[in-house]
Each structure stands twice: as structure tokens, then as C-alpha cells.
Amino acid sequence: MRLLCCLPLLAAAAATVHASALTIQNARFTISSSDATQLRSEQLSLDSTSLPSLSLGSTDTLKLTFQVVEKDGGKGVQPHQTFLRFEANGEEGVQPVRVTSGGKAKFELNMAKPPTSLPPTSTSPVQVSLLLGSYKHSPASLPLFSLSIPPSAPVSPDSFAPLPEITHTFRPEQKVPPKFVSAVFSAIVIAPWVVLLGLWSTLRYSTPHLFSPHVLPFVSSLAAFEGLLLWYWIDLKLGQVLLYGALLGLVTVLTGKQALGAAGDWRVGKKQS
């Protein structure tokens, strides 16, 4: 029973042991100046005992091309993870490299705009290696070359000093006019309405049929329209207002026709009398 339980673990271990390793082929580097003049171009060989030494100026560009393949069959492979590792002065940085489905990759290092993954450098060269990771293959770490580049600028202690305190400037408070001026202008605005109401009060008017069963439904529908607009301002959406308004409009048309007919009958009755 214990043997059966261990069989999956043994199979996984065997698959890891027999997983094919990854390597690269057709590796080549090219160094060019800022005016695109080719300074150096060579093939990289992983079989050599000593790593090639490369040197870049402050405006030079390094182009690296290679193909990731299986070590046994030479078939192009796209690893799940591919990084260039830079090591210098006890510090390191990694730069992701994009690999096609056929295993081909290209990397460009422009010293005019160095990547943030490049560690701080001095006069000692940077050791560059390639890291390959795949679920189906054994991981690989392949030393490529040593790279001499201009020393990075020393970090100033002031770069990490506290910044000045941020002070917020708010808009000054709005100046309010004197109360007397506000009262005068308020009286000017209200005065016409007071005069209008006063003139209306002198007029004689009567609505003897306002609450009759023929007119009251029409007046109620008009009041309902005003209530619908108020409800729309408070809570309703436009689609709901259109739906309720259409239904209420139909009711208003019917009740209005009835009210006009009743008003016509009242006028005819007054003329005959």
C-alpha cells in the first residue's frame, strides 16, 4: 500500500531527472556607436573556457541575439521565464527577455538610456549570464560574457534627504456683502410680485364650476403633472417620467374634452336664459 502511494512521487522525480536541458545556439553580439557604426560583432560560444570581455562607451549600444533550444534535439523552445542577470560589486539585477514561440530572442542595451535593472557599476566589469526556466525542462544558468561599462554616478546623500514640507494654499473665503445691501436687492426682487398679487386681489373672479364632476378631474390631472415633475426632480428617471407622462397625458386629454364640453353647455344655457 505504501508503495502505491509513493508511485506518483517517484514518477514525478523520474520526470524531473530525465527532463531535457535547455541551451542556446546562434548567439551573437553586436556593439555599435551612437552614429550606428558597427564597432564589434562576434559569435558567442558557451563551450569556451574563458568568457569574452566586452566594453561599452557611454553612448554605445549592445545588441544580443540567440535562440533557446533543447540540448538534446536542438528544437526551438519558448521558456516560461527568460532573464539576463547582471552582477557587479556584490549587487545584481535581472532584465526580462522576450522569446518567440520558436525560441528566438533579442536584447538591446543602450548606454545612453540604461535600464533600471542594471546595478551600480564601478571600474570592475559586470558579469552577464542568462537564466532559463521552464516547467517541462531543467532550469539553466548560462554565463555569457563580462561587460565593462562606464562607472555609474555616485549617489548623492542629498538624494535621500527629507523634502520640504508641503503647504497647501486654499482659496480665500468668499466675501459676503453687507446685510443692508442684500436686504435692499431682495426687496427690489420681491416688489414686483407684491404689486402683482395686490392687483390680482382687486379683480373679481369666481369659479363656480371648479369642483363640479366635469371639471375637477381635468384640474386634478393638471396638478398631477406638476406632481410628476416634482417627483422626477426628487427620484424618478427620464424613462419613468416619459411612461407616466404618456399615461397621464391620455387621462388629461379625456378629462379636458369632458370639461370643455361641460363649459360649452353652461355657456349655451346662460345665453338661452
TrEMBL record:
Coiled coil region boundaries: none
Keyword presence, Membrane: yes
GO cellular component, one term: oligosaccharyltransferase complex
Every Ribophorin II C-terminal domain range: 170-265
Transmembrane segment boundaries: 180-203, 215-234, 240-260
Main location: endoplasmic reticulum
Location in the cell: Endoplasmic reticulum membrane
Membrane topology annotation: Multi-pass membrane protein
Pathway: Protein modification; protein glycosylation
Family note: Belongs to the SWP1 family.
Protein name: Ribophorin II
Record organism: Neolentinus lepideus HHB14362 ss-1
